Recover the amino acids of this structure.
């Protein structure tokens, strides 16, 4: 298994083999919480306008996402785990539009054989799913801020996943402490906060779920994200 460490939208566009798109704060985290709350599927989209068009065509669809971290007008939820985790989403189809994560899924699906969506709450389950098929190439894409600026939380999650796959020990407790003092945390805390503070801890809730998330193409070519049962976790060598 050869692991390629990639970044940003430019990296997603060059993914190969089995691709893993990572957007810890907050797209791949909120997707996991929404699926855990019972959502049947998530339709990632490339733009807010596309999300609104889907809602107009399917009034029962639920819109979730952000632009500049904030919930767009007309959306049911922001890109926020704390907003969706306790909602009654059983059987619902969610439409998800974000600045980095969902756009990364679109880019990766155009070039990779398979595409998974990952964050700390699903990282061990994701690693187990990858190990079970032992692909020749794994492309791990740290999406960064808006897909254009590197972000430490995504790079750390990418390294954490790579370490599991290579059976290298991880030291997770240091990660939240480090990120709390990073520029990425400014959106959660203090005078610069623009999103719920609880989202910080929810996004860093290591292995909160025992499923992984995979994006596949529907018959019309549109991507759909679903939860999948993970194999047994990788054990230490």
């Amino acid at each position: 298994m050869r692991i390629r460490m990639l970044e940003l939208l430019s990296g997603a566009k060059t993914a190969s083999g089995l691709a893993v798109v990572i957007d810890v704060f907050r797209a791949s985290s909120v997707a996991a919480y929404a699926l855990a709350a019972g959502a049947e599927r998530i339709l990632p989209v490339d733009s807010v306008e596309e999300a609104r068009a889907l809602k107009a065509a399917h009034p029962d669809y639920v819109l979730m996402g952000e632009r500049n971290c904030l919930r767009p007008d007309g959306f049911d939820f922001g890109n926020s785990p704390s907003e969706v985790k306790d909602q009654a989403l059983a059987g619902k189809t969610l439409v998800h539009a974000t600045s980095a994560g969902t756009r990364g899924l679109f880019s990766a699906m155009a070039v990779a054989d398979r595409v998974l969506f990952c964050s700390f709450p699903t990282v061990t389950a994701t690693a187990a799913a990858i190990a079970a098929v032992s692909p020749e190439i794994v492309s791990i894409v740290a999406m960064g801020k808006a897909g254009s600026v590197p972000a430490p939380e995504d790079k750390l999650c990418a390294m954490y996943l790579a370490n599991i796959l290579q059976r290298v020990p991880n030291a997770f407790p240091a990660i939240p402490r480090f990120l709390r003092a990073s520029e990425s945390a400014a959106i959660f805390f203090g005078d610069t906060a623009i999103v719920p503070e609880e989202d910080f801890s929810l996004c860093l809730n290591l292995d909160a779920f025992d499923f992984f998330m995979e994006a596949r193409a529907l018959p019309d070519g549109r991507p759909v994200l679903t939860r999948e049962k993970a194999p047994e976790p990788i054990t230490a060598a």
Notes: The chain is about 30% helix and 20% strand.
